[in-house]
Design a protein that fits this description.
The structure is a single chain. The relative contact order is 0.18. The N and C termini lie far apart (43 Å). 40% of the residues lie in helices and 7% in strands. Helix 5 packs across helix 7 and helix 6 crosses helix 7. It is of the alpha/beta class and 282 residues long. The longest helix is centred in the C-terminal third of the chain and has 16 residues. The chain has a five-stranded parallel β-sheet with strand order 3-2-1-4-5, sandwiched between helices.
């Protein structure tokens, strides 16, 4: 493994709210010895910070988790068989039918199915191909599910018709991501933040990163002070999973992160600019 190979490691999919552009802020905020300590990501998403740590020299172990089984499958398939993932994506051309087929597969996975339409078991590779097809062809790479049914419901971008599901730099990026995940000693799990924290060994003094779905943002300097009484709040986006991420979850997460810090973990959390969250974390 060389530094030049790892330098190509970037998130294998677009992810709204991803932290690639924030790494210049996040990495300096980490503890000085972060590269020698276990790293835990509670809301993995695109994994920008994890890949950034690998490029910086982190050599594991790491626990990378997301409650979305499709997200977890993308990283697992990338880690275990990037060549097969590249080859499969090279065989998918974006069309209404390929998009619909990918959505059907993803919806079966989201529903907890062990087999998919047309037969055959659910696999990480097939799930990753379907997820990356939707990610490539959907509007702005959005991930959104119906809060009633839990089904994926992003429309196809007509401008992507006729293009390959294989993004131009995937043949180089995906193998680099695999190297990065192996370097991180990544344990990739599909679990919610509570399950992930329950698996942490506190004696290892982990560094925990929490990047949950954000609360509604408030413009800085708006003068909004009252809890839940803001009039200038801009609509937030929490439809990554069925049921969303209500404020009660933000409160529970904050309390759990505080307890993790009491156990010796270093904790970094991100969220929208919002007076409720500032008061909560203070």
């Amino acid at each position: 493994m060389t530094a030049s190979q790892l330098a190509l490691a970037r998130p294998p999919m677009r992810w709204p709210g991803g932290k690639t552009k924030a790494l210049d802020v996040l990495l300096p905020a980490m503890p000085d010895d972060v590269l020698e300590r276990p790293f835990v990501s509670l809301f993995l998403g695109g994994g920008a910070l994890a890949y950034g740590l690998a490029r910086a020299g982190h050599r594991g172990p790491s626990l990378l988790a997301d409650a979305n089984p499709c997200v977890a499958a993308v990283h697992r398939a990338t880690m275990t068989d990037p060549a097969a993932l590249v080859e499969r994506l090279r065989g998918v051309t974006i069309s209404a039918s390929s998009y619909a087929a990918a959505a059907d597969y993803v919806n079966a996975v989201l529903a907890g199915a062990t087999s998919v339409p047309g037969g055959g078991p659910v696999t990480a590779l097939d799930t990753a191909v379907a997820t990356l097809t939707l990610n490539r062809a959907g509007y702005s790479g959005l991930w959104r599910v119906s809060q009633e049914s839990g089904r994926y419901n992003v429309s196809m971008d007509p401008s992507k018709v006729g293009k390959l599901a294989l993004v131009e730099d995937h043949p180089e990026r995906l193998p680099a991501c695999s190297l990065a995940l192996h370097a991180l000693g990544a344990d990739i799990r599909c679990s919610d933040w509570r399950e992930t924290l329950a698996a942490v060994w506190w004696g290892s003094r982990p560094v925990i990163f929490a990047d949950p779905p954000y609360v509604d943002p408030v413009k800085r300097g708006s003068g909004v002070l009252g809890l839940f009484g803001a009039t200038e709040r801009q609509p937030g986006f929490r439809a990554y999973t069925r049921g969303g991420f209500p404020f009660s979850e933000q409160v529970a997460l904050c309390r759990a992160l505080s307890e993790a810090a009491d156990h010796g973990a270093d904790v970094i959390a991100t969220n929208a600019e919002n007076p409720d969250l500032r008061r909560l974390y203070e």
